[in-house]
Automatic annotation (TrEMBL):
Its EC number is 3.2.1.22. The keyword Signal applies. This is alpha-galactosidase. It is an enzyme of class 3 (hydrolase). Pfam families: Glyco_hydro_114 (PF03537). InterPro entries: Aldolase_TIM, GH, GH114_TIM-barrel. Residues 46-188 form the Glycoside-hydrolase family GH114 TIM-barrel domain. The keyword S-adenosyl-L-methionine does not apply. Residues 1-20 form the signal peptide. It comes from Pseudocercospora musae. One of its GO terms (molecular function) is alpha-galactosidase activity. Keywords: Signal. It catalyses: Hydrolysis of terminal, non-reducing alpha-D-galactose residues in alpha-D-galactosides, including galactose oligosaccharides, galactomannans and galactolipids.
Length: 198
C-alpha cells in the first residue's frame, strides 16, 4: 500500500559542502511508502529516475513485532510508550541496543537507502523512559547514530526531536517535525535561523 503523507521538513543549510553524505535541498518534498515491505530499494522505478530514498525506523523504542525485538536485553527495555501498544522505551546508552541500531543502519545501506529518518529520539520528553535519560543523553545518541550512518554514506535525519535541534545541527541533514504540521505551530521554525520549511 502506498500513501502520501505531508510532513513539515526542516532542512539545514548550515552544513559544510565538504560532507560526502547526501543532504536534501531546502524545500524538498517526499513521498512515503506505508505498509509495504521493500527488500531492494534500488529496484524501485523512482530510484532509477534519480530520486532519493529515505528509510525510517524507530531508534528510541523497542517494538515487540520487529524481527530484532528479541535481541534487546531486558535491562535495556524501559517504560511502555503511551498510546503505542507493543512499544517500550530503550536505554539508548546500552551498547547492545546500539549494536542493534548499527545493524539497522547496515540493513538500510544494503537496501540502497540514501538517508535514515530516525523516530522517537525524544525519550527525555517522556519521563526518560524509566532510565533517567536527559537531553544530553539524546544528543550523544544522535551523535552515535549519525556518525555511524555517515560512515555508511547515509544522511541522517532527526524526527520529532525539536528541543535538541540546535545541539545537533552539524550532525543531521534534515529534521522532520510532525507536530508542527499536525498542530500548525506558528513558532516551529523559531530556533532555526538557517533552515526553511516546505
Amino acid at each position: 500500500m502506498y500513501g502520501s503523507v505531508t510532513q513539515k521538513i526542516l532542512l539545514f543549510s548550515a552544513l559544510s559542502s565538504a560532507l560526502a553524505w547526501w543532504r536534501p535541498a531546502p524545500g524538498t518534498t517526499r513521498e512515503i511508502v506505508l505498509r509495504k515491505t521493500l527488500d531492494d530499494i534500488g529496484t524501485l522505478p523512482v530510484k532509477n529516475q534519480g530520486y532519493r530514498s529515505i528509510c525510517c525506523f524507530s531508534a528510541g523504542p523497542c517494538e515487540d513485532w520487529r524481527a530484532d525485538a528479541d535481541s534487546f536485553p531486558a535491562e535495556a527495555i524501559g517504560n511502555p510508550l503511551d498510546d503505542w501498544e507493543g512499544e517500550a522505551w530503550l536505554d539508548t546508552r546500552n551498547e547492545d541496543a546500539r549494536d542493534i541500531m548499527r545493524a539497522r543502519i547496515d540493513a538500510a545501506a544494503e537496501k540502497g537507502c540514501d538517508a535514515i529518518d530516525s523516530d522517537n529520539l525524544d525519550v527525555y520528553e517522556h519521563d526518560a523512559g524509566g532510565f533517567d535519560l536527559t537531553i544530553d543523553d539524546a544528543v550523544d545518541y544522535v551523535q552515535f547514530l549519525s556518525e555511524y550512518a555517515h560512515s555508511k554514506d547515509l544522511s541522517f535525519g532527526l524526527k520529532n526531536g525539536g528541543l535538541m535541534v540546535e545541539q545537533v545541527l552539524d550532525l543531521v541533514g534534515f529534521e522532520v517535525n510532525e507536530q508542527c504540521q499536525d498542530f500548525n505551530c506558528p513558532d516551529c521554525d523559531e530556533p532555526h535561523s538557517e533552515c526553511r520549511s516546505e
